[in-house]
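Lab manual, section 2.4: Encoding a predicted structure.

Procedure: take the sequence of the chain (170 residues), apply the prediction step described in section 2.3, and record the output as structure tokens. A sample record is shown.
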Amino acid sequence: MENAFLLPETEFLADKNYLSKMKVVFVSREKDDENIFIDHLISEGGETFFHYLNGIGHAYKSNMMLLSSRRNYSYGMSELQGSAMVINLRRLNRVPHMKSFLNTISKAVVPGTCFAGCFSEYRSAGSSFNSNSLQEINREEMISLLESIGFSLVDMTEIKGLTYFLAKKN
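Recorded output:
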């Protein structure tokens, strides 16, 4: 199948609770297009994110979808369902209504789909999820949240102050 990256434009209301703005543009698996996909991953997610995915063997998979960290986009459920891997490039702490966002991703993808992302770990006792735009979360809470919405943790690694993870839909 094809890789995907995102370009700006329209909007889509996921589950009528979470307004997400992602538009998917599919890119063929030709070598030049693969480089474009990796360039977008690095430019929006950072080299560390690329190195993390590469280190666990997931940087060059096919059927990947990037959810942009910097621009507003729209995406459809069919694009999510057709992806073997969804990569959220925005730090989850900065995603408004993080629980709703993750729940929407979980409901949209099919079993076996991988989901990758990162967050800044809150290391103080008493952190909790809230509906503010900045979420406080620690490693244990993220694992619990991912499991509660139907994902199994494959890997979680801290690199340069950010915690990166890979989970798989049950």
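Check your result against the sample. The helical segments are 31-45, 47-55, 77-81, 98-108, 139-148.
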